Amino acid sequence: MMEMSLQNYLEKIGSSLDKIWGFEIVSVGDNIIRVSNLSIALLVLIFGLIGASKLTSLLAKSISKRFQIKDSASSTVESALYYLSIVFVLFFALNISNIPLKIFTLFGGALAVGLGFGSQNILKNFISGVILLIERPIGVGDIVEVGGIMGTVGKIGSRSTSIISVDNIDIIVPNSAFLENNVINWTLRDQKVRRCITVGLAYGSDTEKAEKVLLSCVEQIDAIVDYPAPFVLFRGFGDSSLNFEIYFWIYIYAPQGMLKMESKLRHIINKELAKEGIVIAFPQLDVHMKQS
What we know:
By secondary structure, this protein is an alpha+beta fold. It has three domains: 12-106, no CATH class; 137-185, SH3 type barrels (Roll), CATH 2.30.30.60; 192-275, Alpha-Beta Plaits. The protein has helices spanning 2-21, 35-67, 71-96, 102-106, 108-118, 120-135, 177-180, 207-218, 255-275; strands spanning 24-28, 31-34, 143-146, 149-156, 160-165, 170-174, 183-185, 192-201, 231-237, 242-251. It has a five-stranded antiparallel beta sheet with strand order 6-5-4-3-7. The longest helix has 33 residues, at 35-67. The termini are far apart.
């Protein structure tokens, strides 16, 4: 009796699963969309996207190695291949599960409303990512500054871009931020940039001598290029100082290298000015007491 009862119970479960598996969701023309169709499409889509991600990565590396493509361009190739694979996997999943494309027409209105309310930012960032890959205002390895964040571009994804800060922290920035805000790309055309260091000297200093000393300090840094030649400007008379600006050109490969070089130059300036008896100014305030 127990065996018969268990068998009947299993048959009921099997019958219920068959009904759920064959449950008709909607009919589009001559095509009937069942739970089985959607389940197969979903499984194919999930495993297809996982496989596409790994395959496009290997394919992009192979293409880049064969044609000697730079890292920034290689990332663009990988992303483009991945976007194409998404489209291919989607159509393949629909085809293998016998779901017609007319389904998108049927649910077009509902889909549009859902995308409008729930996926606005996702779509905006996705489209921004496509634009970034086509126009390429930034690339992997570029040193950029956006929204007060400075670092090296690590990866440009479909939704966001990873920026590695000077503290080796990965900062995830939405792709739309690169199109909606002013972005500084330090290495878009080349890696040579001009830098400026300001120095305030005490009143009474020999300005012509100070200019020569500051210029000699720049010449002690090997990383500073000879052309364009560095120069010093006496910019004006401040409240407590004679203001000078030192301009020079360097090749920038990492934000840390630029900051270290500027720190080294400041050490040299402080040392050389002290050696020549030239005082670096500090804020001063004269107070006059009047007796009544």
